[in-house]
Each structure stands twice: as C-alpha cells, then as structure tokens.
Amino acid sequence: MTDPLPAPLADLLPEAVRKRLSSGRLSDGVATLVLDASGLDAAGREGLEGAVRTALAGAADVSEVRVAMTADRAVPRARRIIAVGSGKGGVGKSTLSANLAIGLLRLGLKVGLVDADIYGPSQPRLLANEGKKPEAHDSKLFPVPSPWGVPVLSMGHLVEPGRAIAWRGPMASGALGQLVDAEWGDVDVLVLDLPPGTGDVQLTMVQKHKPVGVVIVSTPQDLALIDATRAMNFFEQAHVPVIGMVENMSGYVCPHCGESSDPFGHGGAEAVAHAEEVPFLGHIPLDLSIRQDSDAGKPPAATDSPQGKAFLAIARKVAAWLEQTA
Ligand SMILES: Nc1ncnc2c1ncn2[C@@H]1O[C@H](COP(=O)(O)OP(=O)(O)OP(=O)(O)O)[C@@H](O)[C@H]1O
C-alpha cells in the first residue's frame, strides 16, 4: 500500500479507516482517499465515509475531502451452503431446490446448485444441462453451466442416465464431497439438494459441509408431515438451523373446470411449522404446469407466472434470512 497522504493527516484517521486505506493523496487542498469496502453493507460504507469526514474536518491544508470505495473481490466472502431436505422422497425437494436457486439468482445472489440426491439425481433435467459432463483439472471438478445462469454439479452428470447407483454410505459421501468442494468460482450461495430422509449420507454431508441452514419440504399429507418433523429434529440435532418449511403440492386447481381441491390436504405443513416454532416459508400448489415445465427443463421461477411467483416469494424469505445471518 502506498500512502502519500501527508503523515499528519494520515495520523488523524481512526484505525478502522487506516486499515482499509488503499491509497490517499493531497493535492491543492483536496484530500482523496480510496478505501477498500469489502464485506461492508450500505450502512457500514456510510459509517466509514462519515469517520473520514469527521477525522479530517478542520484539518490544516484540507479544503475538500473526496472518498472513493472499492470492493475487493479477490477477498471473497465465505461461500454459504443452504441445504434442502425432506423426510421422505417424492415431495418435491428437487423441484424446490432448482427453483430456489433460480429465485435467489433473480434476487441478485451468485448461486450454484449441488444435486446430492444419489438415488434420483434430477437437477440436470430440471435445469436443462442433461448429458453434459463436468470438466476436471487437477482432480477438481468444474460445475456445468446451465442456460438459466445457475451452474450445477450432479451425480447425474457423472453416471450414465438411467443407471442405478448402488453406493454404500462412505463411497457416496466421498463422491458427494467432490461436488461440494468443486471450483465454484465466485458463487456466494450453494443450494444443496440432499437425498430424501435422515440417514448416514445426510449426516456426513451436514457434518462435513456445515450448511448455514436447511429448508424442509413437505406435502400437507399426514405421513409426510411425520417424516418432515423427524427431518427437522435431525437437522436441529446436527446443529443446522431450520430456515423454514415449505408446503408443496398444496391445493390443486383443475386446469379444466377451475375447481379447487386438496388431494393431500392443505395447511398441514404450516401447522407443523407453527407447532415446531420454525418459520413457514410458503405454499406451492399442485399444478400440472409445474411438472410439465420442470420435466422440460424450464423452471417456473425463471418466469413471472403465478407458479413462478410462488417460488420467488419463498426465495425472498430465504434471501432475507441469509441477509440477517450474514
Ligand atoms: N407443486 C408441484 N406440482 C406438480 N408436480 C410437482 C410439484 N412438485 C413436484 N412435482 C412433481 O413431482 C415429482 C417429484 O418431484 P421431485 O423430484 O422434485 O421430488 P423429490 O422430493 O426431489 O423426489 P426424490 O425423492 O425422488 O428426489 C416430479 O415429477 C415433479 O415434477
């Protein structure tokens, strides 16, 4: 760091400012300071600038103070992992993971997606990069780009489609670890689509990769709710905070007659969330277009359709949670 700011002036600056000073100069009474504002939010930047102005107010030879801030991306913030889990299979965990990732991306975050669902990896299809292989350099994997802007790594990218994976726990955990520890570049938030249930693979994943929080997906059905409650307890015991619960396949509107019915019930997951004192993040309706668009590799959250808005509302709550816990 060069600091041609005259020493008496630099000495006036408080320590918090001095350690962020990238360069400074005084020319014709104008003091110009460039500060590294990495990791600071708007209030932090304002506070820093205020501290400079207060320190240099009335200083001899200074008629004007100019402050410029830079954010040094060479010092990235720690990448945060959000897990998406469910007590049982088939409740829409992968669908939610894909759409949550897209939703967070639309909210301005840099997002990647790891499909750790060894038993039924579906992210390559959901995000339309099926059949592509990740590159590997120096034994590190490089995520596969998707047309939606979210890079993905999935077991489905590593094995041939349709081939069952019959790995035992430690092998599966090792392979899954490589997906998480890949070259994610400037990705800030990694959405981790876990295998359904609460077994060894899930436990190893959360212990090793320490997600900052987990979103639990359930249908409103009684049996699914019992499993969802078990999943919640599992994550709490593993010290992973529950960001909240999502009720999927909640209420069905017939595309022909418009009549609404509740094949799996309605509101059950919300009631469980209240009983367990975890936030409720929202309902996603059971909707034929969600299945069709998902199968076609067109995640609803990329659109402003009513279905897309339902996913975006959930992404907004998750983003707010991340902001609060930053
Ligand atoms: N809200 C919804 N409306 C209609 N279909 C849905 C909805 N959510 C998920 N589906 C469909 O249900 C099926 C299962 O969803 P998904 O694969 O996301 O579940 P999962 O919990 O990840 O299952 P698995 O345990 O197999 O990984 C898929 O065909 C998906 O398109």
From TrEMBL:
Entry keyword set: ATP-binding, Hydrolase, Iron, Iron-sulfur, Metal-binding, Nucleotide-binding
Q: What CDD domains does its record include?
A: Mrp_NBP35
Record-listed ATP binding positions: G87, K88, G89, G90, V91, G92, K93, S94
Q: Which GO biological process annotations does it have?
A: iron-sulfur cluster assembly
> Pfam family of this protein, just one?
ParA
InterPro entries assigned to the protein according to its UniProt record, in alphabetical order: Mrp-like_CS (IPR000808), Mrp/NBP35_ATP-bd (IPR019591), NUBPL-like (IPR044304), P-loop_NTPase (IPR027417), YlxH/NBP35 (IPR033756)
Note the SUPFAM superfamilies from the entry.
P-loop containing nucleoside triphosphate hydrolases
Q: Give one GO term, molecular function aspect.
A: metal ion binding
Q: Which family does it belong to?
A: Belongs to the Mrp/NBP35 ATP-binding proteins family.
Q: What does this protein do?
A: Binds and transfers iron-sulfur (Fe-S) clusters to target apoproteins. Can hydrolyze ATP.
Q: Record's PANTHER family?
A: IRON-SULFUR PROTEIN NUBPL
Quaternary structure and partners: Homodimer.
Quote the protein name from its UniProt record: Iron-sulfur cluster carrier protein
Organism, per UniProt? Novosphingobium flavum
